[in-house]
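chain below, 184 aa
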Amino acid sequence: MTSVELEQRAERAVRRGELLVALEHFEAYLAQQPDDERVRQRMESVRALLQPSELVSRRRTEPEEPEPGAGSLTDAEQGELHASSGRFDEAARAYAKAVEANPKNELLRERLEELKALAKPAGRADLGSAEKLEKADSGGFPKVAGRSARASEASFAPIPPRKADRPALLNELLDRIRVNRRKT
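prediction:
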C-alpha cells in the first residue's frame, strides 16, 4: 500500500472515530516515510484524543476495511425497511426471497405470513354494521360529545352515598362492570 493510501485511510478512520485504526495507518505511513513531520504531528494529535487505557490494548478484532458487499442489506433487512415505511407488498416480496434462501428459518416464514396479511387485508370495512353516532346539534357539536351509545350507557357516576358499607359498594361496582361487559 502506498503512503498516500495509508494517509487517506488514516484520515478516514479518524473521521469515523476509529482512532486506534488511524494510529496503525499513521504508523505504517511513518514506516515508509519516517521524515514526514506533518504526519507525525497529526498522529500525535490523534493519540492525544485516546485514553491511556485504550493505548495499552491496541489490538482490534474487527477488520480494518469492510468486506466487499458487506454494506449491502440482506433480503430480510430490506423487507424490514419496506415494512417500516408501510410498503407491505414490497416487504413481503423481500421476505419471500429470504425464505427461499433459508427455507428452514421459522422466524422468516412467520414474518412473511405477517407481512402477507398486512399487504392484503381480509376485505373492506363493513360500515353498515358499525355503530351509529348521534347527529350533531345546530351548534355543530355532537349531542353526546362524540361518544357512542355504548360509552354513554357505561355510567361511571358516583354511587349514591349510603352508610359505610364497603362490601356492598364493591359488589355494586362489580355488578355494573359485569353488566357492561355483557352488552359489548
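The chain has three domains: 3-56, 75-119, 149-183. The mean pLDDT is 76.
thats it, cya
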